[in-house]
Automatic annotation (TrEMBL):
UniProt keyword list: Glycoprotein, Glycosidase, Hydrolase, Signal
Organism name: Digitaria exilis
Protein's name according to its UniProt entry: Beta-fructofuranosidase
UniProt similarity note: Belongs to the glycosyl hydrolase 32 family.
PANTHER family in the cross-refs: BETA-FRUCTOFURANOSIDASE, INSOLUBLE ISOENZYME CWINV1-RELATED (PTHR31953)
Length: 578
């Protein structure tokens, strides 16, 4: 049934209001008592801590920082509060790995020690110099609460773990210039060298409501000067956590995190290295409705080029905040996880990025269940039985739409073009019967057939003239019986031609207690949700396939794997703090 335009405007407004999740810097600051409230040596075991997503044993984490590989060791730095489970007292925590799966926790690498970072060490990036020396550029909050950019170098280059870092006395190396907003000047990118030998990097800032990616140049990584113009800008509010990198020989990616909406978007375009000019592809959206890495709870992302493999790859990290209350975070003693690192590539048509969990994560796969060629009739569902627990699992599936003529598919309302996919899915959720779909998975479902709790990951297919429009949604509205939770429905459209795929749509979902991380059509559309079940916990969690559409759907194949937990340990020989 068609919905009038004014109704969809209401849905859009509701979606925008619900999308303003709390974050590291935009949230209301906690009280000093909250920010320093230590959860003790043990956290509350309520079945919600992740098993194979990265998180430290306790306390608050947010942005991934300075990700890199050095002498065969992967380094993950991240924003961390060593004193409690809410934002505050921010330092650069540090963990190392040889496979991006198991991690060793090291002491914090960078923390306030000098006038240029006395009030905090915020986000930044790592750059590998030509001689192989890694250098970190990060935002420090100085004694005047200005955001300034500082550098740090390893104390011992022979240590592959890079345990200790030294901050030169000549910091800060970049300060906000006259007329700039000194409280919105942060998150330097990885630097790159131009044909003239000069280093370049980008810093996020704003001019009133206009977000800016400011370009800076340096000959020696000590003295930096601003370019005459920004690399790019947009009328979207503050740009933070920018990232800029080549995705092939002709195209670059500029990603920014939007402080106002707590979403990220990216553009694909051409970068002229001689003139430092970046021109986004005019055929792609540039702004709030632009392409996203992830249409869910995924923010402050950072990539690095992994050259340790025979075939180098671009790896993406992103932070997933909690969706419960501050009081709940303090009670359980931890807050925040990192998404599974993803390999990023350009789609074959060059119109978007494609993401997929790094292959190493499959080393955690254990026992598995296979389902092949099962028809799911309208209004039916079935359990994928045989797993000891589906609360920690990896599910790969392919669904085939049987009504290829799309006689039963709902018409795509022209009014929906003026709103985003999330607003469409808010109105047409998993329990709203459709023509072709909703169909997909109920994950973290209670053992009563998912009646009390379930999180739906699903597709819905519309017809738009002679074309198909595929919507992918994560609907956690029934995910928990707990009170006081933020349970937004997230969604994105999927670029898939069902006529060419024979009606098939692929889905992979990583399930990890309080994380549901999904990849539609081999990573063209990605959605991460945080959920907090009270019934579907541990071995009581179930996995179902469902079809709430009028048209039948076939599960052509489904493989569900139990996932072992990653090994995250503390360094047995921690060095003495500086």
């Amino acid at each position: 049934m068609a919905i009038r335009t004014w109704t969809w405007v209401v849905f859009l407004l509701l979606a925008l209001v619900s999308s303003s999740s709390p974050s590291c810097r935009a949230a209301e600051p906690p009280s000093p008592q909250q920010a320093s409230a230590d959860a003790g040596d043990l956290t509350v075991d309520d079945g919600l801590r992740t098993g194979y997503h990265f998180q430290p044993p306790k306390h608050w984490i947010n942005d991934p920082n300075g990700v890199m590989c050095y002498k065969g060791v992967y380094h993950l730095f991240y924003q961390y509060n060593p004193k409690g489970a809410v934002w505050g007292n921010i330092v650069w925590a540090h963990a190392v790995s040889t496979d991006l799966v198991d991690w060793v926790m090291l002491p914090p690498a960078i923390y306030p020690t000098a006038p240029f970072d006395v009030n905090g060490c915020w986000s930044g990036s790592a750059t590998m110099l030509p001689d192989g020396t890694p250098v970190i550029m990060y935002t420090g909050i100085d004694g005047e609460n200005r955001q300034v950019q500082n550098v740090a170098y390893p104390k011992d280059l022979s240590d592959p773990y890079l345990r200790e870092w030294v901050k030169p006395d000549y910091n800060p190396v970049i300060s906000p210039g006259p007329g700039m907003n000194a409280t919105a000047f942060r998150d330097p990118t990885t630097a790159w060298q131009g044909p003239d030998g000069l280093w370049r990097l980008v810093i996020g800032t704003k001019d009133n409501h206009r977000g800016l990616a400011m370009l800076y140049r340096s000959r020696d990584f000590k003295r930096w000067a601003p370019a005459n113009r920004a690399l790019h800008s947009g009328d979207t509010g503050m740009w933070e956590c920018p990232d800029f990198y080549p995705v092939n020989d002709t195209k670059h990616v500029l990603k920014v995190s939007l402080d106002l909406t707590r979403f990220e978007y990216y553009t694909l375009g051409e970068y002229d290295r001689d003139t430092d000019t970046y021109t986004p592809d005019p055929s792609l959206a540039d702004g709030n409705d632009g392409l996203r890495y992830d249409y869910g709870n995924f923010y402050a992302s950072k990539t690095f080029l992994d050259t340790s493999k025979q075939q180098q790859r671009r790896v993406l990290w992103g932070w997933a905040n909690e969706s419960d209350s501050t009081a709940a975070d303090i009670r359980k003693g931890w807050a925040g996880v990192q998404a599974i690192p993803r390999k990023v590539t350009l789609s074959l048509d060059g119109k978007q990025l494609v993401q997929w969990p790094v292959a190493e994560i499959e080393s955690l796969r254990g026992a598995h269940v296979n389902v092949t060629d099962v028809l799911v009739k309208s209004g039916h569902h079935f359990e994928v039985a045989g797993l000891a627990s589906s609360s920690q699992a990896d599910v790969e599936a392919a669904f085939q739409v049987m009504d290829m003529d799309m006689d039963k598919a709902e018409a795509f309302d022209p009014a929906w073009r003026a709103v985003d996919a999330q607003a469409v899915c808010v109105a047409r959720g998993a329990d709203a019967k459709g023509g072709v779909g909703p169909f997909g998975l109920w994950v973290l479902a209670s053992d009563d057939g998912g009646q009390e709790e379930r999180t739906a990951v699903f597709f819905r297919v519309f017809k738009d003239g002679g074309k198909h429009v595929v919507l992918m949604c994560n609907d956690p509205s029934l995910s928990s019986q707990a009170d006081g939770l933020y349970k937004p429905t997230f969604a994105g459209f999927v670029d898939v031609d069902l006529a060419k795929t024979g009606g098939k749509i692929a889905l992979r979902t990583l399930i990890d207690h309080s994380v549901v991380e999904s990849f539609g059509e081999y990573g063209k559309t990605c959605i991460l949700s945080r959920v907090y079940p009270t019934k579907a916990v541990g071995d009581k969690a179930r996995l179902y396939v469902f079809n709430n559409g009028e048209s039948d759907v076939k599960v052509t194949h489904l493989n569900a794997y139990e996932m072992r937990s990653a090994n995250i340990t503390s360094d047995a020989a921690e060095p003495t703090s500086r």
